[in-house]
Specification:
This protein is an alpha/beta fold. It has helices at residues 17-26, 57-66, 95-118, 140-147, 164-172, 186-195, 212-222, 242-247, 260-270, and strands at 8-13, 36-38, 49-53, 74-77, 88-89, 155-159, 180-183, 198-204, 229-234, 252-255. Helix 5 (164-172) links the parallel strand 6 (155-159) and strand 7.
Amino acid sequence: MQSHSYPFAVRMIGFPEEEAKAISDSFGGDYSTYGYFRLGEDNLQDPDLYLVNADELKALATLNDLAPGQARPALLVGVPTVSLPYPHLPRPLRRDTLFNALDSLVEKRADTLARLEASSIISVPERRRRDRIDYDLTEPEEYERMRTRGHAKGGILLVDKNPAFREYVAEKLARFNVPVDWANTQNKVADECEDNEYSVVLVNTSTPGIDPYDLAEEIKLINRVRNPAVIFLVGQPFVYDLERARAAKVDGYMNKPVAGHHLMAVLKKFIPALVR
């Protein structure tokens, strides 16, 4: 199998949490040829494929906006009420049937990516990270939050205990002339945000002496007009608290260690200068 990475990242859309957890728990077993893991709701990593609850109209609308294809395929669970060009599995969902279908999709995906690489077309970013804005399906408060998600054009601030990762990021972005700064204390972060314009602030949640949620809230308060994206870099034993993150207006997170291609794909979503 060509052009693969293990395990494969699955974005689950429209499932009740109990069912989503049951499915994702099965990802940890030896039931398939390839490994899979569920992307958390705020995980900014691009998925390898989508698993969608076909019984939910909003989930199908979201899938339509994401525009899946052979390089990022979709699998439906349940029978949709409208005709859609994606494979689907009937309920009740059988574990062997699910993994046979997933394995088949990632094998076809690998062939597609191999052809794209041969043609030097290898970037397949996820088109839309957030649910589409729909007046009929979206709560007013959520609509307002989604509508005001612009980010300033600026550099990157990396919050970490030492500058090693900052040097790595700066090297990857050197040809784009995007400045990358570093801070290791909350006071230093505040000073940098007062003096500079940032598009993205990357926060290593294991940085000593820092509460990442409090820090994110402070960054957003300092930069109300510039509104930089605040992205957590998360590793064990830290557990991403979705409720606290939303309250602090955190834009999402990435799992450590962060692969270079995943980092670039995420940064391109917030820094237009990198898309060239």
